[in-house]
Amino acid sequence: MKLGALFSGGKDSTLAMLMAKNLGYELSCLITLESKNKESYMFHTPSIKQTKIQAKAMGIPLISQETKGEKEGELKDLEKAIKKAKEEYSIDGIVTGAVESVYQSSRIQKICDKLGLECFNPLWQKDQVELLEEIIKNKFEIIITGIAAEGFDESWLGEKLDKKIIERLKILNKKYGIDPAFEGGEAETFVLNCPLFKKRLKIKKSHKIMTGENSGRLEIQELE
């Protein structure tokens, strides 16, 4: 079965792609929504333009669709992008990195139903600590590119998501109730390397933007 992958550049969508490939699915294309709204209800936003470089590293074609990021209105742009993927790459379904967000998964499912596509959510309801351990086991190299919760500060931006960080996240979970894998929107991530990549990416230029005491983002400006 040929799948299009909803791809944000972060850990969940990338892990879902790897799981789909390991199950024998063909990853025909990536689908990315570039939202102009930093507070998008549906889509990952930090360094989203860099998904083009990640797509090249994987050797998978990318469909990139701009959206204003308006609630519900952005779904029309998502449908447009998925429809384009179906027409250009003859996909049979969509793979997503949805874990707990009913808001996201239900809306993606509705679009797939309308377009006659299967919707595959391999991470759905997966234990969040197990999800992080799966990422470590598969030797993903991931950095944190966005924070938005009590317990975080500027020092977290750019940190690698490794065993040490996972232990720190467990502590924050007990102290502040932060979801370890950020399913409450507490943080965003960016993948620099994983088994799907043909080459490891390196950050050449970036800068941190803090928007509050516990919120901010790492803007990746140049990769190699």
> Can you identify the CATH superfamily of the largest domain?
HUPs
- pLDDT < 50 stretches: none
- The CATH topology of the largest domain is Rossmann fold
Instruction: List the secondary-structure elements in sequence, H or E.
Output: EHEHEHEHEHEHEEE
CATH class of the largest domain: Alpha Beta
What topology, given as strand order, has the largest sheet? Answer: 3-2-1-4-5
Q: What structural class is derived from the secondary structure elements?
A: alpha/beta
Count of domains? 2
- Largest sheet features: 5 strands, parallel
What is the molecular shape? globular
Distance between the termini: 32 Å
Beta-strand segment tally? 9
User: Please, what is the average pLDDT?
Assistant: 93
- Note the total helix count: 6
Descriptive account of the structure:
With about 220 residues, the protein is α/β, with parallel strands linked by helices. It has 2 domains: about 120 residues, HUPs (Rossmann fold); about 100 residues, putative n-type atp pyrophosphatase, domain 2, CATH 3.90.1490. The strands form 2 sheets. It has a 5-stranded parallel sheet with strand order 3-2-1-4-5, sandwiched between helices. It has a 4-stranded antiparallel sheet with strand order 7-6-9-8, with no helix packed on it. β8 and β9 form a beta hairpin. The two termini are about 30 Å apart. About 40% of the residues are buried. The mean pLDDT is about 95.
Topology record:
Blueprint: E1 2-6, H1 11-22, E2 26-35, H2 51-58, E3 62-67, H3 73-89, E4 93-95, H4 102-115, E5 118-120, H5 128-137, E6 141-148, H6 163-176, E7 187-193, E8 203-212, E9 215-223
Parallel strand pairs: 1-2, 1-4, 2-3, 4-5
Antiparallel strand pairs: 6-7, 6-9, 8-9
